[in-house]
Amino acid sequence: MACLPQELLLKRRAEILHALCSGGSVEHLERVIDMLLAQGELGWEDCQNVLVPGRALYSNARQLLDLVYTKGADSCELFFNAVKQVLPEALGDAFFLSGCHSTLDYKEKPQRTSTEELLTQRPDLVLKLQGCIDGALRVLVESGHFSSTDCDGIQLPIYTPSQQARRLLDHVRSKGESASLVVLQYVQQSLESESSLEQTNPKFVKYQKKLRSSVSAQSRFLSTYGGTSHMPLDDIYTEVQMELPNNSADNYKSMGFEEIIGPVGSVNDDADTVLASGEAGSGKSTWLQRLHLLWSQGKALQDFLLLFPFSCRRLNSEQRDLSVQELLFQHCCWPDRGQEEIFQFILDHPHLVLFTFDGLDELKQSFADEHRICCPSQRAPVDVLLFNLIQGSLMKGVRKVVTSRPEAVGPALKKHLHKEIHLKGFSLSGIDCFVRKHHSDPNEAAKVLESLQANTALLGLCHSPVLCWIVSQCHKELLGCGEGSLQTITDVYLMILQHFFQHHSTVKSAMGVNWLQENLGTVLHLGQLAFEGISNSSYIFSVTDMETCGVTESDICMGFLIQSKDMSLANSKCYEFLHITLQCFLAALFAILSRNTGCSAISKLFELQEMKKKRLRGTCFGACLNSTNIPNIVKEHSTMAETPNLQITATFVSGLLSQRYQKLWVQCSSSVLVEKKTKQAEKCLSKGMQQHFRSIPQPVQGEKKSMHAMPEFVWLIKCIYEMQNSRLAKDAMSKLEAEHLKLTYCNIGPVECTALAYVLQHLKNPVGIQLDNNSVGDVGVEQLLPCMHICNSLYLRNNNITDEGIHKLIDKVIHLQNFQKIALFNNRLTDACTKHFSYLLKTRQNFLSLRLGNNNITAEGAKQLAEGLKFNRSLQYLGLWGNKIGNEGAEALANALQNSESIVWLSLVGNGVGSAGACAMSNIIRNSTSLEELWLTENCITRTGVESLTQALKHNHHVKSVCLAIPLQQQAN
Ligand code: ADP
Predict the structure, then answer these.
(1) Pick from 124, 269, 604, 845: most CB atoms within 10 A?
(2) How far is it, in rounded angstroms, from Cα 487 to Cα 461?
(3) Beta strand pairing status for 273-277 and 399-404?
(4) What is the Cα gyration radius of the chain?
(5) Looking at the structure, do residues 207 and 188 belong to the same domain, yes or no?
(6) Mean pLDDT computed over 26-53
(7) Range of 151's domain?
């Protein structure tokens, strides 16, 4: 018997409600409403009455049912029709056959305006816009209809892609006819371009859109700005410096993602994995987030149709064995339809797919090459899958981008890399740019930048993006605390600690001297969580973990923790610290303040890596906690992040135990215990230094005693600096007997230079300091100045130094008689630096060696140098390899050196010198009484030049070699 639609609605009410709401998502209800709106069955006011924010989903659905019931039979019929389209299987065919006409068409209405069209096409438009919200917003902004605030409001991460699409449509409606037209045209255009792929594989296109919008939602905002203030990545992202090892020409320039993934700098064309490495806080995750965002916005890497982003931190909690298909779909984006087809598409088109893995160092297991699998349907533990993906034995041809700290990148991994790039943090102009982006008020930005200029130690710290973020975030504290008072990393982290407490303080006045004591509970709870996490390689915390450490809601509200999206804990909340370095800092505070951590915890933090490796086989760091409250954590594996994190924590411990902070602890812990811990830390540092010194081999006869720094040497130096303990520095240096300190490839940036200078200035005798292949830069050079009086030779090859840095260096060393040699091969020097060297040469008559190879010095620069050389009686070595001095420059130099009694070695290799230059050089051979070697290879000297040199040699008994490799073609001339 036929049943009236209204009756049916009453009869099946429970069933309909269940179908619409049982999934817990508001999506079905909203889609039904879209259709009713499109058909004019519901008005905007009706919608507002149904979709009441904050009200339970079931209540909203009931409200809709009541509404359509009261509107009458036609409404009910249209409602059923809409439900059938949204949930074709949910209510069964019988439901519709029992009397309702499910085929009722939309009411035909003449369409006059774009705004009307926007409404009648709403269901369709919501679907289509989901995958291209970014693009639609872009055209709306470009056409002047939307502001960036409009866009931000629409793209808040709390909204699903379809909700974002609805918000966009609602907003466009309020902007009027021409905005509606822009959207309709945009959708039409993007549909046309997609239609070919859609025709061949519609499910794939749908999936691609879903993936794109989920990647977009995940990457839109920066998480360090916490849950309250949303900072769009687009607004704050600042380019970071990059270095391609073995490609000195491109060092430090910022590269686009296409270039990074492409063939430039490849070391293994068969490999598919690009690694971006950098220290904690150097901006790796943010850089990868930027890659995701640009891809999702259609602005980069569009050759890849699919991008699957993974976080190794989150993958750690996946306990199940998974196949690649499960890994992709369950951890990144679930295909609503056609899983098999989509996966087959991926297998068939690997070159159209990109995987990214953030933070490989945080994976519980170290990279291993042993367990090979190559079948995508085979299930395996996540780490095994991941390593096989990186190696390429699984899903060969899919490009992978991995980020990691350098410590985790061993030879086993290196051999599978297509290329490796190093992220080097912000350049000086990057710092400037970041600060200006961070502060909307230009005056405020200018003040922050001014205070950084006045404190170069702090400026040096700001090369690290995470520190630059803290300094900008705490600008009020920064400007209020007096010039130069922030010197160490610990100073900066204490500032942000105070900042967070101040921010959440109920009393909005300046905090009292007892600010730490007032917040001690929070510090200890979060500190314990952080400490246990560091000792157990945990970076994501469940509610249970938090309860164990006594972390309360109000502790969470302070802002140090953010909610984490851990897939395996989908239904329960979990948290992580804003940044790993903040976790290390809170762990360090706990190590100092907790009465339950003793001195043994301190000494284990300072244990050197080699010794620790031995110890780890037997015991673990967590076991040194002697409290009954704190569980001993027995680790099965040591992760790759463990040592660096312990070292960062130890660095903070050193800083916090500095004399300067002792009075801060008086109210918060046992003074006796803190005193003991301080002594312990000092002892560990002093022992660590001595251990290094003992490893210095005896010099070969005739050579200088040289110490090649082990990686931990720089870390120990940094700890001493953080402690600001000059007695310790002096004591350590009094035991160092080397004449040459080799610190090449030690990842030394400005911060390390500050620490090195602080400690090395106490050396008894002058040494050579070799800092080749680091990232010293101009700020680093400035930081080194305090120890230049004990430096006789400074080697700074390949360090991104400009004329500016040289100016400051020479101003200082001009007065230091010990300083006799400098090597600056492969920096960014131009003619502007040569006037400083010229001055140095004129002034210092015991200066021995100047090497300026592979810079940008031209004839003008050579002329400047020649001015200095004319007055110099001491220089023995002059290297200008790989510049552009040409004949003119060579002639000027020859003129200045022709009667030299000191020059022994001169190199003008690769300088575009022709025969005229060579003829000029002949004069030095002829007249100088000291020259032994002259290098002129890779120039354009012809027979005339060679003959002149040969003639000159006949008159000279000092010269041992003149090197000339003349291209055959030129010889023939
Ligand atoms: P890493 O992954 O190397 O530890 P992150 O990418 O997490 O470092 O950076 C830490 C913080 O520094 C970020 O949350 C952000 O606030 C800031 N930051 C890093 N890189 C940039 C960048 N390129 N532009 C703007 N801010 C950045």
Answers:
(1) 604
(2) 9
(3) parallel
(4) 34
(5) no
(6) 88
(7) 5-97+114-196
Residue 639 — pLDDT band, cuts 50, 70, 90?
A: low
Identify the residue whose C-alpha is closest to ligand 1 atom 5.
283
Residues 849 and 881 in one domain: yes
Q: Let me know whether 76 and 187 are in one domain.
A: yes
Same domain (yes/no): 247, 373: yes
Are 317 and 422 within one domain?
Answer: yes
Q: Which residue has the higher pLDDT, 565 or 172?
A: 172
Does some domain include residue 39? Answer: yes
In a domain, 342, yes or no: yes
Q: What is the CATH number of the domain that holds 852?
A: 3.80.10.10
Atom number, ligand 1, closest to the C-alpha of residue 287: 23
Q: What was the pLDDT predicted at 375?
A: 86
Q: How confident is the model at residue 380 (pLDDT cuts 50, 70, 90)?
A: very high
Helix runs in 454-552, H state only: 456-461, 465-473, 475-480, 489-504, 515-518, 520-535, 543-548
Distance CA 709, CA 741 (A): 7
The CB of 501 under 6 Å from ligand 1? The reply is no
Q: Domain check: are 135 and 268 in the same one?
A: no
Instruction: Identify the CA nearest to 316 among candidates 382, 361, 394.
Output: 382
- Cα separation, 54 vs 872, whole angstroms: 82
**Structure tokens, 389:** 């993906």
Distance between CA 929 and CA 687 in Å, rounded?
51
CA of 238 to the centre of ligand 1 (A): 9
Is 8 near ligand 1, meaning CB less than 6 Å away?
A: no
Nearest CA to ligand 1 atom 12: 466
Phi and psi torsions of 57, nearest 5°: -60, -45
Residues near 305 by beta carbon (within 8 Å), at least 6 away in sequence:
208, 349, 352, 353
Task: Find, among 119, 103, 11, 106, the residue nearest to 65 by Cα.
Answer: 11
> Closest by alpha carbon to 35, among 70, 88, 75, 93?
75
**655 and 520 fall within a common domain:** yes
720: in domain: no
Verify that 124 and 177 share a domain, yes or no.
Answer: yes
- Identity (one letter) of the amino acid at 204? F
What is residue 624's predicted lDDT score, i.e. its pLDDT?
A: 41
pLDDT value of residue 292? 95
Residue 889 within any structural domain of the chain: yes
CATH number at residue 217: 3.40.50.300
Q: What is the pTM of this model?
A: 0.75
Residue nearest to atom 26 of ligand 1 (CA): 237
Q: Which of 500-514, 700-714, 854-868 has the lowest mean pLDDT?
A: 500-514
Distance 24 CA to ligand 1 centre (A): 35
Gap from CA of 283 to ligand 1 centroid (Å)? 4
Count helices and strands (H / E) in the chain: 49, 19
Q: What is the three-state SS of 515-541?
A: HHHHCHHHHHHHHHHHHHHHHCCCCCE
1: tokens are 């018997």
293, 331, 450, 676 from 436: Cα distances, Å: 22, 37, 12, 44
Can you tell me the distance from the alpha carbon of 737 to that of 704, in angstroms, rounded to the nearest whole number? 10
Say yes or no: CB of residue 434 within 6 Å of ligand 1.
yes
579: Cβ below 6 Å to ligand 1? yes
Last residue of a domain, one of 196, 218, 244: 196
Q: Tell me how far apart the alpha carbons of residues 860 and 340 are, in angstroms, rounded to a whole number.
A: 68
Over the stretch 731-753, which tens digit does the pLDDT of each residue have? 999 988 888 999 998 889 999 99
List, for residues 488-543, the tens digit of each pLDDT value: 999 999 998 988 888 766 555 555 667 888 899 999 999 999 999 998 888 999 99
Please give the pLDDT value at position 6.
Answer: 84
State the distance from the centre of ligand 1 to the C-alpha of 281, rounded, in angstroms: 6
Which of 165, 196, 227 delimits the end of a domain?
196
Q: How far apart are CA 775 and CA 788, in angstroms?
A: 18
pLDDT for residue 79 is more than 50: yes
CA distance 491 to 493: 6
